[in-house]
Structure prediction request, 224 residues.
Amino acid sequence: MGELFTFFGLITHDKTFIYMTHMLLSAGIAIMLVKMAMSNLQLVPRGAQNVMEAYVGGVLKMGTDVMGKENASRFLPLVATIGLFVGIANLIGVVPGFEAPTAFLEMPLTLALSVFVYYNYVGIKEQGVIKYFKHFMGPVWWLYWLMFPIEIVSHFSRLVSLSFRLFGNVKGDDMFLMVILMLAPWVLPMIPFALLTFMAFLQAFIFMMLTYVYLGGAIAVDDH
Prediction:
C-alpha cells in the first residue's frame, strides 16, 4: 500500500517535513480561529465568537463535572487549547491532500509528556513532595513496598494511554480512508468522511477529559 498523497509531499517525501508542515498548519488555523473570535467582541456573540464561546463553555462544563467549577476554570486555558489544537490536527487528516499530524507519534507523545509533567508539577506544588508521593503508597503501611512501584508504573502508563490511543486511532483512520479512496474514490467515501469527522472530535474530547481527570487526581490527594 502506498503512502497517503499530500500537497506538502509534492515538495519532499521527508516524513519530518510533512509532519512539521501539517503541525504548523494546525497551529496556524487554531491561532487564526481564536483571533477571528476575539477580533470584534460583542455582548451578544455572533459568528466565530459564538462558536468559540460555546466551545469554551462546553470544555468548562466537562471540567466542572470532574473537579468542580473553580479548579476547572483554573485549568481551562490549558485544556481548551490542547483540545482545539488536537481537534484541528485530527480534522486536517480528513481533508484529501492533507495528513493529520496526530498520525505521527511525535505529536501525541509530546502532548502526553507535557500533560504528564504538568499534572505532576501541579500535584507537588499543591501537596508538597512528601505528601504527594505518599499518596502513591496507598492507605496500608505494610503494603507501601508493593503499592509504590505499582503506582509509579500506573502513572507512566498514562503516557501510553494519552499518546498511543490518539496516535493509533488517527493513524488507523488515515489508513481506512486511504483504502476507501482507492476502492471507491467518488460516492462511497461520503459516509467514511462523516464517520472520521466524528472520530476526530471524539479523540480530542477524550484527550481533554483524560487531562482533566489526571489534573483532578493530582490536586485531590487529600480526598483519598
User: Anything to note?
Assistant: The chain has a mean pLDDT of 86. The two ends are 51 Å apart (CA to CA). Residues 27 and 85 are 6 Å apart (CA to CA).
